[in-house]
Amino acid sequence: MAKALLGYVGGSDPRLLAEMRRLQQRVQDLEAELVRIQAENDALAAGASRERIMERVDAHQAEPALT
Questions:
Q1: 33 sits in which H/E element
Q2: Nearest 5°: phi and psi at 65?
Q3: Most distant CA pair in the chain: distance in Å?
Q4: Distance between CA atoms of residues 63 and 61, nearest Å
């Protein structure tokens, strides 16, 4: 009965196994790309933050350093 419900008799279909391996590899590739892009985004955000801090500091209005 169970074999009839599955639609075939025998082991796993090699095409199905190959497709599953291909999809698992694709998921791993996408996860790795996501980690890389998040790291790049973090670096860009940190750089933008530093630029905003530097824009707030006005060298013309800053007090002279004591010498």
A1: helix 14-56
A2: -75, 150
A3: 93
A4: 6
Amino acid identity of residue 62, one-letter, is: A
Q: 16-40 burial, b if ≥16 CB within 10 A, otherwise e?
A: eeeeeeeeeeeeeeeeeeeeeeeee
Q: Which residues contact 45 (CB under 8 A, 6 or more apart)?
A: none
- Quick count: other Cβ atoms within 10 Å of Cβ 64? 5
Structure tokens at 35: 């980690």
DSSP tag of 37: H
pLDDT in tens, 16-59: 889 999 999 999 999 999 999 999 999 988 887 776 766 666 65
Residue with tokens 């590739």: 29
Tell whether pTM > 0.90: no
